[in-house]
Each structure stands twice: as C-alpha cells, then as structure tokens.
Design a protein that fits this description.
Number of domains: 2
Helix content: 40-55%
Radius of gyration: 22 Å
Number of helices: 10
CATH architecture of the largest domain: Orthogonal Bundle
CATH topology of the largest domain: Arc Repressor Mutant, subunit A
CATH class of the largest domain: Mainly Alpha
Oligomer: single chain
CATH superfamily of the largest domain: Winged helix-like DNA-binding domain superfamily/Winged helix DNA-binding domain
Shape: elongated
Number of strands: 11
Structural class: alpha/beta
Largest sheet: 5 strands, parallel
Strand order of the largest sheet: 2-1-3-4-5
Amino acid sequence: MRVLLAENNPGMARDISLMLTSVRMDVCTAEAGHPAIDMAHKDMVDVILASARLPDTSIRDMVGILQQRDLNIPVVAYSRAQLTDIQTDMASAGHDLIIGRLDRHDVAARLVKALGPARPAHAIIKIGPLTLDLFTRMLEYEGKAIHVTPREFEIAEFMALQKDRALNHNDFVGELSNMHPGYEGDVVRMHISNLRKKIMTATGGKNYIDTIAGKGFAMRDYEVPVPQRAFKKVFADKSVHKRGKSHSAQKARPKPGTLRLDI
C-alpha cells in the first residue's frame, strides 16, 4: 500500500513514516496540503494520511480539491483534539478521522479499511497455509476461520510481519498496543501458547510458531517441531472432550493455584 503522508511537523512526519513502514507500507511525504494534492495527482497513491491542522489548507478544502480533480483517493485525517464537525463531514464524504494518540495497528487498520474492497494485496499476509487479513482482522487456515482474540491476532500479525525473526518479551511489549514493560513474560507466553494451540487444533496438529531456546519465538511459513508440552496440551484437551475425565486428562490438569504455560 502506498500512503501519502501530509504533515508539516518534520519530527511527527518522521515518526509516522517509521510507524507505517514497520507494517510494510510504502510512504511518501508532503509538508502541506497543496503539495500533497499535487503529489496525489502525479504519483500512484492508494490513500492519504493527513494532519487535520495543515498550515496552508483545511482538511475539508483538501478533500474538496481532490474531488474537483476527480482523484478518488480516500483520506484519513488525524487530530489530537476532538473535531466533531470535521469528523461528521469526513464520514459523510466516505473518509475517516482519527482522534487522539496514533496507534500503529489502529492507523494501519483504518488505512486498509479506507480502501474498502479495492484494498491491495499488502492487506493479506500469507504464512504457509495460514492467511492473515488485515482488513477483516481474520486468521484463516486453508480458507477456514481460526477464531482468535484481538490480542492473539495482533500477536500473529506482529510475528508474521517479522517472519523468521526471533522475538523476545521486550519486542512484544514494545510493539503491541496497551502493553507496558511491567507485564511479566508469562503474560506474553500465555497469549502465544493460546494462539499456537488454536492453530494446531485447526491444522490437525501442525505448528508454525517456533520456540527458539534463549531467544524467543518466530513465525515460520513451514511446519516446525511442536514443543512437547504444547503438543501434550492440545491432545490432552481432545482426550478430555472425547473420554470425559480420564486418568490422562486428570494428570494433564495443573494443580490448583498454579498457571500452566504450555510453550
């Protein structure tokens, strides 16, 4: 996806550009509204991300000029302050306005959503037989949905974008929304364990999340060996479902007051 960023603050433009390139978006920048309009006319741009407080033109006028020039490019504006009138105007014209702090995953999702059905292939991430749709926020295996929580999808997306790279606790805490350094490693491992379990259940025991001793976790586009405890956990759950409270199921159950993390 090629994003045209209109921002007159150089520091803010740099930070937003880095944020977008980290999720594999191609970014070009303009320091004001009219240069952005000229660039949109000349360059192949999929979507415009613009400050609602540009120095040379209002966001309303910018949208109006784009329409006059028959440039059907969706615009996503952003502002720290609440701008109810502008938000209403943007929504009625089929555009969007982000209020408050810019979150990397939220901005990426809003840009993809702004494209609608015309979203580019970059909205789809393929990891072997797994498919992540950044537009619908769905994880699929061979066309069938794997029901994951928003946090689990966020982790899968982050790992897929960093495919084959070993990611440790600090990587996840630094990149995922609403997480802070105070979170213990067990919290991150628990989410990864649940995600792995759901993928293995959907794929008949296939694992694509690699555990790298002393380094962390990596998403692979090929099947990797299953950590023995995670393997036992998945099939212990199946044995409970089929046979009820069997001896093996009772043995697999953690002791009261403990949290078993099958990673």
